[in-house]
């Protein structure tokens, strides 16, 4: 008798199972018991005495043909015919529905598809039989079965005999059926690649059944073991599969495409040699992905393969641009096309998913630039269309292209029709009989349907399906209008009110007992909803990648297409991202939409700054500023509505993060008040949410409110609320804020109570936010282990570290807001500022327990680092008013933490010391300055780049303090400051100037200040001479380097500080020419105009002619400045144009300064300029005299009278030069300057007469 496998392969897709039964009677199968053709199945599962599809304990699906007969377990056992991957519809058609037609020995076993596969049919049957009750062998070691089968396969040689084909078939079947443990069970990627190469060598392309089987093996092993084939073996396998596709019959193409898809997964750039065969004009994938392709499954598999090619590993090469463009256009065409006839809905959804994944991979690669408006508009149009694909209750029509527009574009809604699900004609309609409740299908299908049955609480999308999304909605007002003393939106009454809408919601989940469908039909409906939800998630993920790949200024042109706006009277609400966030039944999809909205809002401050609605406009048109303000208000309303209705913790976290992004970027000082008050009141209950991430994001939102355009009057009123304000008296969530909770920790209760009583005595009652943050940091919580804290241990009685960390950051925000009020450029009137006495009491309360305790908590370094940041946000005026012991405590803690082994703590402590050294009450203390300097220098040599960067910043601040003390206290401070320490600082800063740019920018700033601080008795010492030379050379090399513009700007600034020290031998030292050469090179040719401005400023600082060096040196500087003036408008960067006027102003000022110091020998070069470029220089000097400084970054600008005086003094200086050799040049220059002054005076007089 021929092999059953060969018979099956011969008749596969040509005959039914009944035909096979006629060819191979069961009695012949009985004779094969115990032979090698039927290997023992040691782990067989129980039979179920019922018809239809059931599962075993491993999630494997079985179809049992006979409900009447059940063979008992016996030594003789029973047999299985395992048909892997055969579609359910085919099996039903083959086996029939009549009872008793198939004997109980014939069982059909169907395995789930691979994770990366697009489906397909496997052409093998495994016949197995063994006594079920026999003795079981001990399970083999991990990977042993694979290695044994691989060794057997490796011993074979290519042959075309029937027995060889049979043996290869059996080996392939056993390899596919092998139970691979998680992670491969010790099987390496090299082993898998070698086995697949050997398998392909054994199978000739004319053996189509074996080609199909080896394709299944490639697909199964690479997916099951998560293997990415190396480049050498990939070359052979790709050549084999492409040749197989070209030579074999069409019935094998699906399996070959699946194998090809698994091979190219994350290997796209390594397939360059084969890309013409795959993605060329006549390439395999291009043909199969064409809309004219008749087989929808092949088209879907081809698109899936193309999407896998587009996947790239970060840091690895990308696809070449022509192929990227081909793939992009193919995916876009698929998304723009409608569903073709003959394609069922699920296949169409899978096709869309593959196209969206391909687009996302191209965009994530970073090389796909959407520069053309048509290209970007087409992509955004299809993404918006599929964001709502299959969304219940919504069916929209989108234009082919979205264009940038200030108003919402057409998104017409067609009447909603309940279209029946299109079933593949090859699949029969499911049985109408219901199954017993509770026996639901598991396995792969269960995983697919998990999302469809996701968590949707009482207030989730089912409620919002009935809510009207406009301002006057009764439901909306019921949620958002809360009394001043309570937060009704989250109270039980509000929740009951929300759940009252469940009965009328069209999207309420229906239990199996209430459904009009059978289980099979209901499962198909659920599966369909699951696939549609995945399409929406794919579109949102692709949109998120699009946002990251285009400039924000381009993105905001499409703001109105994706962000909601208040609808006009009689017009419907436009669909937007908030429509998904409010109405989508899938929590994951809602979270994706909110994540996209957060990405849009992130960095939108400049765009939203135009919003304004402080006054009611009564115009014939709506200004753009009012439109944006309306959009902000609608975002507030919708997000708060979603906040109340959401029950999924993951989605809730995204809502709060989205609100925080909105609060951080919206211009509330230009909007009507009360927006932040609503957010403030609604977020309070979530501070004690069971999920840690929700609690952390709630504190982040409160921090964003506190720092929103600080100090906003509305926020000040919110901060002045006492503990009892805004809290419901019967709210258990807020009962922990009562004063009794402050006494749970006896060691700190007394000091905390005293401090809060002090604050209460001044302001009536302490702010609940301050008490909240302090209690989170230092007090045990009531429920030490909440449901969501999986890492909670019995000894951990405090809030989780992320929550405590966010509380400290919130306290830091409060401190920073107070500092902003007291800055010199603050717009807050002194009468409206928070009194310093209250600030002192606040910090006294902080220093009486929370901060010292957190600072000394070495078990939580992030908590220590955040505490250091909070301590650095103290108001300087408040610090000087603190008791002396509190000041000493702060300094001692920071100096101690600077020795921490943790880089986060050390960096935070170094930064805080850099803040403290600027305090007026500390900077004059030589001992404190010296101690701080030693601590900073120690951190400057740390191995962590972050620590070194923070230490360099602090060193720059410390040297600023030295300069201030030198100017205010004079020589006494300089003499008292240690010379050895000064030398040590010079050497450390010189070494740091060779570090990374983040360290270098502040190191060169410190070098300039230190060289300025040096006194003559320092400079003459031999040990200083060499160090000074090295320091100046470091500055010169930094000016000429290719470092960032910030570094070069600081280096020019530092050289200007060096020139201010008259004790340095400027003009005679060898480094003088190098310094001037570096500055003149930068002022002429640097691309960044701010660096040019700073170099021109440095060139105008020396106040003596000798400091400019020789005549040749002077002439070089003069010519460079004239050339720079000529090139002051030569730039290709539009952003630099705003600095052109400032650059010309600074150059003119430097030229006039050089004129006022010129000697007779210098007049010849000046005369040459007058003769060659006199008209150009005259024009710019007249502009300088008339308009002065435009822009910024030029320092303190002289007034018009001072500018006139400077030029007049330069003229008098030139007139006063008494050298016969330069008389002619002097006359020419004098006449030239007099002409400029006369023209300026005449113009000024004519302007005065007109006024």
From TrEMBL:
Compositional bias (Basic and acidic residues): 444-453
Segments of this protein annotated with the region Disordered: 413-453
Biased amino acid composition, Basic residues: 430-443
Residue ranges occupied by any DUF4042 domain in the UniProt entry: 534-715
Pfam families xrefs: DUF4042, HEAT_EZ
Superkingdom field: Eukaryota
InterPro entries assigned: ARM-like, ARM-type_fold, DUF4042, HEAT6
Name listed for the protein in its UniProt record: HEAT repeat-containing protein 6
């Amino acid at each position: 008798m021929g092999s059953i496998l060969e018979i099956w392969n011969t008749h596969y897709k040509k005959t039914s199972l009944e035909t096979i039964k006629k060819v191979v009677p069961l009695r012949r199968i009985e004779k094969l018991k115990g032979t090698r053709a039927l290997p023992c199945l040691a782990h067989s599962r129980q039979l179920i005495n019922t018809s239809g599809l059931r599962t075993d304990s491993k999630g494997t699906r079985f179809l049992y043909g006979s409900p009447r007969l059940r063979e008992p377990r016996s030594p003789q056992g029973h047999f299985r015919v395992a048909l892997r991957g055969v579609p359910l519809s085919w099996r039903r058609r083959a086996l029939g529905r009549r009872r008793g037609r198939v004997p109980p020995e014939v069982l059909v076993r169907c395995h789930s598809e691979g994770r990366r596969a697009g489906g397909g049919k496997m052409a093998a049957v495994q016949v197995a039989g063994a006594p079920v009750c026999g003795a079981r062998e001990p399970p083999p070691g991990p990977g042993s079965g694979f290695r044994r089968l691989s060794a057997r396969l490796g011993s074979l040689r290519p042959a075309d005999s029937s027995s060889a084909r049979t043996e290869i078939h059996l080996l392939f079947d056993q390899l596919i059926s092998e139970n691979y443990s998680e992670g491969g069970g010790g099987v390496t990627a090299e082993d898998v690649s070698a086995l697949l190469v050997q398998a392909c060598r054994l199978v000739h392309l004319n053996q189509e059944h074996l080609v199909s089987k080896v394709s299944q093996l490639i697909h199964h092993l690479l997916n099951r073991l998560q293997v990415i084939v190396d480049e050498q073996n990939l070359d052979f396998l790709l050549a084999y599969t492409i040749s197989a596709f070209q030579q074999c019959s069409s019935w094998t193409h699906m399996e070959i495409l699946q194998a090809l898809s698994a091979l190219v997964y994350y290997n796209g750039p390594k397939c360059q040699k084969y890309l013409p065969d795959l993605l060329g004009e006549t390439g395999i994938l291009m043909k199969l992905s064409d809309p004219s392709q008749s087989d929808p499954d092949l088209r879907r598999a081809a698109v899936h393969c193309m999407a896998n090619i587009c996947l790239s590993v970060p840091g690895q090469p990308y696809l070449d641009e022509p192929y990227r463009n081909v793939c992009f256009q193919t995916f876009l065409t698929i998304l723009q096309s409608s569903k073709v006839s003959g394609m069922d809905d699920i296949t169409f959804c899978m096709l869309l998913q593959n196209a969206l994944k391909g687009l996302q991979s191209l965009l994530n690669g970073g090389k796909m630039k959407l520069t053309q408006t048509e290209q970007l508009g087409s992509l955004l149009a299809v993404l918006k269309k599929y964001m709502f694909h299959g969304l219940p209750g919504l069916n929209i029509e989108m234009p082919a292209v979205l264009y940038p527009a200030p108003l919402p574009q057409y998104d017409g809604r067609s009447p909603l029709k309940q279209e029946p699900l299109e079933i593949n004609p090859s699949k029969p309609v499911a049985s109408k009989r219901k199954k017993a409740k509770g026996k639901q299908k598991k396995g792969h299908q269960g995983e697919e349907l998990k999302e469809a049955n996701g968590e949707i609480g009482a207030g989730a999308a089912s409620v919002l399906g009935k809510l009207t999304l406009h301002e006057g909605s009764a439901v909306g007002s019921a949620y958002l209008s809360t009394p001043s003393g309570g937060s009704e939106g989250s109270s039980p009454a509000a929740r009951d009110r929300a759940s009252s809408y469940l009965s009328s919601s069209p999207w309420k989940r229906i239990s199996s007992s209430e459904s009009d469908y059978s289980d099979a039909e209901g499962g198909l409906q659920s599966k369909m909803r699951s696939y549609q939800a995945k399409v929406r998630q794919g579109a949102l993920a692709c949109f998120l990648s699009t946002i990251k790949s285009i400039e924000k200024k381009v993105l905001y042109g499409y703001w109105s297409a994706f962000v909601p706006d208040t609808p006009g009277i009689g017009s419907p609400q436009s669909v937007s991202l908030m429509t998904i966030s409010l109405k989508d039944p899938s929590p994951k999809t809602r979270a994706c939409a909110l994540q996209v909205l957060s990405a849009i809002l992130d960095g939108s401050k400049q765009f939203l700054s135009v919003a304004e609605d402080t006054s009611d406009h009564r115009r014939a048109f709506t200004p753009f500023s009012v439109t944006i303000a309306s959009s902000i208000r609608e975002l507030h309303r919708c997000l708060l509505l979603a906040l109340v209705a959401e029950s999924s913790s993951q989605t809730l976290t995204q809502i709060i993060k989205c609100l925080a992004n909105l609060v951080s970027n919206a211009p509330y000082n230009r909007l009507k008040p009360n927006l932040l008050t609503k957010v403030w009141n609604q977020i309070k209950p979530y501070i004690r949410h069971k999920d840690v991430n929700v609690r952390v994001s709630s504190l982040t939102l409160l921090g964003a409110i506190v720092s929103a355009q600080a100090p906003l009057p509305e926020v000040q009123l919110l901060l002045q609320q006492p503990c009892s304000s805004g809290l419901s008296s019967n709210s258990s969530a807020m009962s922990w804020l009562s004063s009794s909770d402050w006494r749970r920790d006896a060691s700190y209760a007394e000091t905390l109570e005293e401090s809060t009583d002090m604050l209460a005595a001044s302001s009536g009652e302490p702010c609940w936010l301050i008490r909240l943050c302090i209690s989170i940091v230092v007090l045990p919580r009531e429920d030490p282990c909440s449901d969501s804290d999986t890492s909670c241990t019995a000894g951990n009685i405090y809030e989780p570290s992320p929550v405590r960390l966010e509380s400290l950051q919130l306290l830091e925000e409060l401190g920073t807001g107070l500092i902003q009020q007291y800055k010199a450029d603050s717009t807050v009137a002194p009468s409206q500022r928070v009194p310093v006495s209250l600030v002192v009491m606040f910090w006294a309360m902080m220093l009486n327990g929370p901060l010292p305790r957190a600072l000394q908590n070495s078990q939580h370094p992030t908590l220590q680092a955040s505490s250091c940041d909070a301590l650095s946000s103290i108001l300087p005026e408040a610090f000087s008013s603190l008791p002396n012991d509190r000041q000493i405590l702060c300094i001692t803690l920071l100096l101690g933490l600077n020795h921490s082994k943790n880089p986060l703590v050390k960096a935070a402590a170094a930064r805080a010391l850099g803040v403290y050294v600027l305090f007026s009450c500390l900077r004059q203390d030589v001992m404190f300055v010296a101690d701080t300097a030693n601590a900073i220098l120690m951190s400057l040599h740390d191995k962590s780049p972050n620590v070194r960067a923070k230490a360099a910043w602090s060193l720059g601040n410390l040297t600023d303090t030295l300069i201030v003390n030198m100017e205010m206290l004079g020589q006494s401070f300089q003499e008292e400051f240690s010379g050895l320490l000064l030398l040590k600082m010079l050497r450390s800063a010189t070494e740091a100037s060779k570090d990374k740019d983040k360290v270098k920018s502040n190191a060169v700033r410190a070098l300039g200040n230190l060289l300025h601080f040096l006194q003559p008795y320092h400079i003459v010492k031999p040990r200083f001479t060499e160090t000074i030379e090295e320091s100046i050379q470091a500055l010169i090399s930094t000016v000429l380097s290719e470092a960032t513009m910030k570094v070069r700007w600081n280096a020019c600034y530092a050289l200007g500080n060096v020139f201010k020290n008259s004790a340095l031998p400027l003009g005679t030292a060898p480094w003088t020419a190098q310094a001037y050469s570096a500055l003149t090179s930068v002022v002429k040719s640097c691309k960044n105009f701010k660096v040019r401005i700073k170099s021109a400023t440095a060139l105008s600082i020396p106040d003596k002619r000798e400091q400019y060096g020789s005549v040749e040196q002077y002439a070089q500087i003069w010519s460079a400045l004239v050339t720079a003036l000529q090139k002051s408008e030569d730039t290709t960067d539009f952003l630099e144009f705003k600095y052109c006027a400032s650059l010309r102003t600074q150059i003119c000022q430097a030229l006039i300064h050089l004129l006022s110091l010129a000697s007779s020998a210098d007049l010849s070069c000046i005369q040459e300029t007058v003769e060659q470029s006199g008209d150009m220089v005259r024009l710019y000097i007249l502009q300088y005299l008339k308009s002065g400084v435009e822009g910024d970054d030029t320092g303190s600008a002289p007034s018009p009278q001072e500018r006139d005086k400077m030029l007049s003094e330069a003229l008098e200086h030139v007139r006063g030069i008494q050298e016969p050799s330069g008389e002619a040049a002097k006359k020419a220059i004098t006449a030239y300057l007099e002409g400029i002054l006369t023209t300026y005076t005449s113009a000024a007089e004519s302007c005065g007469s007109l006024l």
